Amino acid sequence: MVLARLTVWEFKEGQGEKGKELILSSDVNSLSNVARRSKGYKGAFLLTDNDKPDTVVTITLWESEQDMLDSRKELFQDTIDAFEKIILKPPQPVNYTIEGETLI
Asked: How far is it, in rounded angstroms, from Cα 76 to Cα 5?
């Protein structure tokens, strides 16, 4: 079973690109690098809203519910300071179970 966490990031006007940079940065403490070091991390997607360039969605994939839950503090509480000046409000992650998949 694979689990997914979907997080909507709403950045201040004109800050969407900066937000994506902070998420994808090669910096050791970037959100993507912290996720990669987390137990049970399987991968991620970053989606941008074509009509709202300051809204970014991340979907992270996890081996188990416990791994996903354990990663939450490090991923959100410990890295949110980097986003403090450019984010409208703290993201509210939602957890899902992947029931099936079809890739084209």
From this structure: 12
β-strand partners of 10: 55
How far from chain centre, in Å, is Cα 51? Answer: 20
Q: Which of 14, 6, 4, 5 is nearest to 87 (CA)?
A: 14
Q: How far apart are CA 44 and CA 14, in angstroms?
A: 24
pLDDT in tens, 39-94: 999 999 999 989 999 999 999 999 999 999 888 877 777 677 788 899 998 888 89
Q: Give the chain's domains with CATH numbers.
A: 3-97 (3.30.70.100)
Residues forming beta bridges with residue 11, ordered by sequence position: 87
pLDDT of residue 51: 95
Burial class (CB in 10 A: 0-12, 13-18, 19+), 13: exposed
**pLDDT single digits (tens) 23-48:** 888 776 777 888 888 899 999 999 99
Cβ atoms within 10 A of the Cβ of 52, count? 11
